[in-house]
Amino acid sequence: MIFLLVWLLLIGYAVYLAPGSGANNPVFPELLNGNIGDIDPLVLAVFNSLGIFPLVFLTLLLLNDRMRWPAWPFALLSFGIGAFSLLLYFAFGIRKPEKKLRTPRWLVRFLRSRFWLIVLIIMWAGNWLTLLQGFSFADYVDYFFASSLVSVMSVDWLVLYGLSIYTVHRFYPGARYKGLAWIPIIGPVLVLLVNRPLLKHQK
Q1: What is the pTM of this model?
Q2: 117-148, pLDDT tens digit by residue?
Q3: Is the keyword Cytoplasm assigned to this protein (predicted)?
């Protein structure tokens, strides 16, 4: 029920409570026009990370896709609507794990490969290196209250962060160094990387 409640709260926030204007959004036009230099680097890094988070969830969920509902539709939808799709999966679909793993073996081998996990780490590092240009928390707060896009994506980011920690502890209770999952975005990938021998024995 907690996931359903969070889903309802997230929808309520996005529709009724998020500050900022949708009509005169100061961020969205710049993104559409490719004027990323006019956006604060922290805002841009958070926005880009919402494209990396779904890759992390795609990896985690497809490696464990044996639950009541197939995970791949929700993982794919998360590229467009983030936590809005994943919360429904965790609310209703993550039950009765008796089913055989749905993910093809070749895809399982790829997703748990050192190559793929390192690719995710490089993407994460490249995104956050943009912060070296300089950023301002004060500017981010201004964007948060001026732009509904930034408001919603910030809350979405926090929900995805919490879900990523839960997912690691749910699927890998015996993994070593599970505390790494608390590192935003890339933590679950690091857990997978240091536990690759454990992944190889998954059926």
Answers
A1: 0.90
A2: 999 999 999 998 988 888 888 888 988 988 88
A3: no
Domain boundaries, the chain: 2-17+40-200
Q: Are 45 and 184 in contact (CB under 8 A)?
A: no
CA contacts within 13 A on the Cβ side of 50 = 23
Residue 21 has φ and ψ, to the nearest 5°, of -110, 135
Chain centroid offset of residue 35 CA: 25
Question: For residue range 140-171, what is the model confidence (pLDDT) as tens digits?
Answer: 898 898 888 889 999 999 999 999 999 999 99
Residue 21 is given by DSSP the state B
> 84-90 long-range CB contacts below 8 Å, 24 or more apart?
84/7, 84/10, 84/11, 84/156, 86/57, 86/160, 86/163, 87/3, 87/4, 87/6, 87/7, 87/10, 87/159, 87/163, 88/3, 88/4, 88/7, 89/61, 90/3, 90/163, 90/166
